[in-house]
Amino acid sequence: ISHVTVIGGGLMGSGITQVAAQTGHHVTLVDLDEGVLAASTTRISSSLSRVARKRYHDDKEAANRFIETTMSAISTTTSAGEAVKEYRSCYRSYSREHGCQTQAV
Quick one: which of 48, 68, 71, 103 has the most CB atoms within 10 Å? Predict the structure, then answer.
């Protein structure tokens, strides 16, 4: 799995987005409310700062690189349609590769 789409930018969605991005995944965070997405991005950035301080102690350069790399792996959108289109495309591709039938989605 290289790309994760998270629907909903609340506390749980933000947490899932952060963990997925920290572990090297590209993440699209979807919420219909731009205010929620802005709050999610702020929450994730703040949380990453805390993680970076603990992980990198006195190495500010490494801490900043960690934060920037993780944040750059996250994109946000209010368009659920784009996320669904992306999911369908990935699902169909996976299904073809593994011989699955694609009846629903």
Answer: 48
Torsion of CA 59, 61, 63, 69, to 10 degrees: -150
Whole-number pLDDT of residue 90: 62
Tell the burial category of 14 from Cβ atoms under 10 Å away from its Cβ (0-12, 13-18, 19+): buried
Three-state helix/strand/coil letters over the chain: CCEEEEECCCHHHHHHHHHHHHCCCEEEEECCCHHHHHHHHHHHHHHHHHHHHHHHCCCHHHHHHHHHHHHHCEEEECCHHHHHHHHHHHHHHHHHHHCCCCCCC
